[in-house]
Amino acid sequence: MHHNNPARWKHTHRFEQDYTHAEHRTRLVIAITGTMMLVEIAAGMIFNSMALLADGWHMCTHLTAFLITALAYYFSRRHAADPQFSFGTGKMGVLGGFTSAVVLAMIALFMAGESVHRCFVPLPIHFNQAIAVAIIGLLVNLVCALLLQDHHHAHQHDYVHDPHHHHDLNLRAAYIHVLADTLTSVTAIIALTTGKFLGWTWLDPLMGIVGSGVVSIWAYSLIRDTSGILLDHTPTRSDLPEEIKHAVESDGDSLVTDLHIWQVAAGRYAAIVSIVAHHPKPAEDYRQLLSEHEELAHVTIETRQCHAPEEAFTPCVN
After folding, report:
1. 240-316 topology per CATH
2. How far apart, in whole angstroms, are the C-alpha atoms of residue 93 and residue 98?
3. β 296-305/268-277 pair status
4. How far apart are the first and last CA of the chain?
5. pLDDT by residue (tens digit) across 235-284?
6. For residues 97-123, b (16+ Cβ closer than 10 Å) or e, as one string?
7. Of 3.40.50.1110, 1.20.1510.10, 3.40.50.10860, 3.50.50.60, which CATH number belongs to 17-230?
8. 64-77 pLDDT, tens per residue?
């Protein structure tokens, strides 16, 4: 059979959602964070304050993570129509989130090491300057946190089986970096205030250790979620595999012998379904049975005919 226009049978592989708004918010956060970083570093050099310099360079690491987030959005959008990406560019954001999570883990490790070092080798603290910087940093981080909140998933596809994976993990990574900075500012304000008025200078490094522990937990959670998607892990918190099997096997003849499901973008999945039956249906009929699952963006159906007697159906699938 010849087709005059083969292109009409092709389908798009642009499964990812439109993250233009998130990309713009990320760029705004980069501008705010970069400005604050330069101010802190300059003030630290002018006032000879190590606290200001340290916080400025610490903010530089988070700025790097925000740049990773922005680049992931850019490359995902730039190559969205590139056919060399077999299942689209939805995972670029996940890769950006994974990279940011690794940076976050390194920051937590540095915070822990520096805090332990300060326990044994305490340095003089410029309380007034450090408290002022921590307060300004807290306000800046709160503004950035509001900008980076992921509201997109809250009003779309509420019925979906695994709502956890409908988050934009790239944006979530940037948001966690802001939360880490916010936590650092809060603990710094508490430690510096008590140190100034009560003389509890030991509380400063202790708060650093506590903060690094919390940041480590956030980093681990993000690494776990993003690495599973990058490795095409079947979503464990989804009932999608069971529902696909139930839909296909509802005719009493078809049997799902092999099933592969993996995430290709936020809230979008691909599936390969292998079916054996005495009277196999056309692939389009099986695909129609799964049409109610709008989260299935790409479905491949494989069918085989079972030649064994119907009462001996089970050995046919071995």
Report:
1. Alpha-Beta Plaits (3.30.70)
2. 9
3. parallel
4. 34
5. 877 789 999 999 999 988 999 999 999 988 778 899 999 999 999 999 99
6. bbbbbbbbbebbeebbeebeebeeeee
7. 1.20.1510.10
8. 888 888 888 888 88
